[in-house]
Amino acid sequence: MSSNGNTVLVTGGAGYIGSHACKMLADTGYTPVVVDNLSTGSPWSVQWGELEECDIRDGEKLNQIFERYRPVAVMHFAAKAYVGESVEKPDIYYNNNVIGTMSLLDCMHQNSVQQLVFSSTCATYGTPDQVPIDETCLQAPINPYGMSKFIAERMMADYGLAYGLRFVALRYFNAAGGDPDAEIGEAHDPETHLIPLILDAAAGTRDQIQVYGTDYDTPDGTCIRDYIHVTDIADAHVLALKHLLEDGDSQFLNLGNNQGFSVHEVIAAAKRVTGRDFDVKEVARRPGDPAQLVSNSTLAEKTLGWIPKRSDIDIQIEDAWRWHMKYYQHN
Ligand SMILES: NC(=O)c1ccc[n+]([C@@H]2O[C@H](COP(=O)([O-])OP(=O)(O)OC[C@H]3O[C@@H](n4cnc5c(N)ncnc54)[C@H](O)[C@@H]3O)[C@@H](O)[C@H]2O)c1
Description:
This protein is α/β, with parallel strands linked by helices and 331 residues long. The protein folds into two domains: 199 residues, 3-Layer(aba) Sandwich (Rossmann fold), CATH 3.40.50; 106 residues, UDP-galactose 4-epimerase, domain 1 (Alpha-Beta Complex), CATH 3.90.25. The strands form four sheets. It has a seven-stranded parallel sheet with strand order 3-2-1-4-5-6-11, with helices on both faces. It has a three-stranded mixed sheet with strand order 12-9-14. Strands 7-10 form a two-stranded parallel sheet. The chain binds nicotinamide-adenine-dinucleotide (NAD). Nicotinamide-adenine-dinucleotide binds next to helix 1, helix 4, strand 5 and strand 7. The site of nicotinamide-adenine-dinucleotide has 28 residues, from helix 1, helix 4, strand 5 and strand 7.
């Protein structure tokens, strides 16, 4: 199959964020091709392009896919992304996220594909020395997941210097929401993200929602996070791709809403949006949760012309809830 010049290879495109990026790519005239080993992703979320079932660490198979589709660029979402699991099984995280990324970079180099948009994370900052966090903040990851992404960023920079790779590493804060048409959405198993867990409680499939720590140095004592809608993340990916295709330089950019919400505020918003009440249990802090992670994303706005459109926390929860009701009725 020869490329039409608009083919973008999307690793991890069967996952939550990657599938939304595929929809956005198709909507903006690109042809996504998904490479995914389906370890946490699902075939049903691949609706906008071919699915090639492949582990990115399988260099030989990956190379054949590059030769078959001849992509102009790559979006790299494939990773293991559970912080707690990464502490228990660091080997799995370094193997998948670091060696997997290196295998991909080598394949890109071999096939002269020079443009890459990468899913990085605010976890590369660890416990930040200032909030809001901008890209000049010290990166000091506090778990193997964050470290694996930090190493991947450094590898990209080095491949850039040596081999001419150009990349945009997007450091997302907390992805949230779902496709406004409810065609795809978040369905992780196990689920660890706050909003889908709260929606389980609202739907009655979970007895209660636990709040870890109420004695943080924040106005209501609970942790504060910056939630960014998954379609706004997808939008930033397409803008980053265009930036690279127009010969733009490599960038590290935060993606957040420049605004934080406490756990209690998110729970209150979910009760408001769903019109449902549910039990909330306050328990002790978990180790390794910084009190506040809030982004300063003005660099992404300036560099890419990115403007988040679904920032309102109620909209993020509404979109997630619509998807949640649709998906869990059938599963
Ligand atoms: N969800 C968030 O809040 C968040 C925040 C910051 C960064 N990120 C990053 O965004 C990316 C996507 O996250 P997500 O929430 O959509 O996760 P996800 O688990 O839904 O998607 C990851 C996808 O990658 C695939 N995959 C994993 N390892 C692979 C491998 N070796 N080869 C091929 N495919 C593989 C999985 O099957 C899955 O489809 C990840 O890189 C994650 O680290 C996510």
